[in-house]
Specification:
13 helices; 299 residues; mainly alpha; three-stranded antiparallel β-sheet
């Protein structure tokens, strides 16, 4: 493919200049690969300087015909815009064909959330007598109590804990650091796990600082957290489709329902834009009606 050297340069640009995580870099490269696959389906291999908005619109139509969701199409367009912006930066092209390329309109799908009863049920379903029991309870409390992304949890380190001031240091998207408050319940379970369970693990070299370890003494994988959540949902008979991110959604929703400032929630979640946080303002109608009835002077 004629583009390979430019894609390699784009990859380095994303890693070094934009400091994006490996997962984010892979997502951008996958977006470009979809465009390459489209041209291959047409037995074409155009030069980057020859690509026009007409090509890109036809490509988006192709994705739509394949049944790709609007949200995924928007993600691909975002990746292409970043790629062609890089090519402009490097003077590879003189005209950016993505300038007038519009993303499909998205209907804002509200994330699933759990109520506090459901969260308590999930945590109560963990058998603390098993070797991994206390670890799993600590995982659930930290996910819900701090609103972490799953990768932020697996990358959490002992050196990032500040129990005296009840904060943890989190490495979020783009390697951005933030301090997140951590509650007493989560701190207590972390203390038990680290000082009474984890101390007996045969920890592999290079993994000494990671908090959550598997049986092999290496840091826990993302898929392990997903499997834990799924197994707890089955054990409690929960009918909702949930993932580790559901606990993050619940964390944000419960804070806002309780009256937390949107900016504060944005800071804790590590959102670069407050519009991302605003999706959590979907307080249900019954709750709103109850608040109006109880507190509004004209109710």
């Amino acid at each position: 493919m004629l583009w390979s050297s430019y894609i390699k340069g784009f990859k380095s640009y994303l890693k070094l200049e934009r400091s994006l995580s490996g997962n984010s870099v892979d997502a951008y490269l996958n977006d470009i690969d979809k465009l390459i696959q489209y041209f291959k389906s047409l037995n074409e291999e155009p030069k980057l300087t020859d690509i026009t908005i007409a090509h890109l619109k036809a490509f988006i139509s192709w994705l739509n015909e394949l049944g790709m969701q609007a949200s995924t199409q928007a993600r691909v367009i975002s990746g292409l815009k970043a790629f062609f912006a890089y090519l402009m930066l490097e003077d590879v092209i003189s005209i950016d064909p993505t300038t007038l390329l519009e993303a499909p309109k998205l209907s804002r799908k509200l994330p699933d959330t759990l109520n506090i009863y459901e969260i308590n049920e999930l945590i109560a379903a963990i058998d603390a007598s098993k070797p991994e029991g206390m670890r799993n309870k600590a995982i659930m409390e930290v996910l819900y109590g701090c609103g972490l992304r799953v990768t932020e949890l697996t990358e959490l380190r002992i050196s990032s804990l500040f129990p005296q001031i009840e904060f943890i240091k989190v490495i979020g998207k783009g390697n951005k650091e933030r301090l997140v408050p951590i509650g007493g319940v989560a701190l207590k379970l972390l203390d038990i796990y680290i000082n009474e369970v984890r101390v007996h693990a045969n920890i592999k070299k290079g993994h000494e600082d990671f908090i959550f370890l598997n049986r092999s003494g290496t840091k826990l994988s993302r898929i392990s957290i997903f499997n834990l959540i799924k197994s707890l949902a089955v054990a409690t008979g929960l009918k909702k489709t949930i993932s580790p991110h559901t606990l993050r959604h619940s964390f944000a929703t419960h804070l806002i329902e309780g009256g937390a400032d949107l900016r504060a929630v944005q800071e804790m979640l590590g959102h670069s834009s407050i519009t991302t946080t605003e999706i959590y303002t979907h307080i249900d109608r019954d709750y709103l009606r109850e608040v109006i009835t109880q507190f509004h002077p004209r109710s």
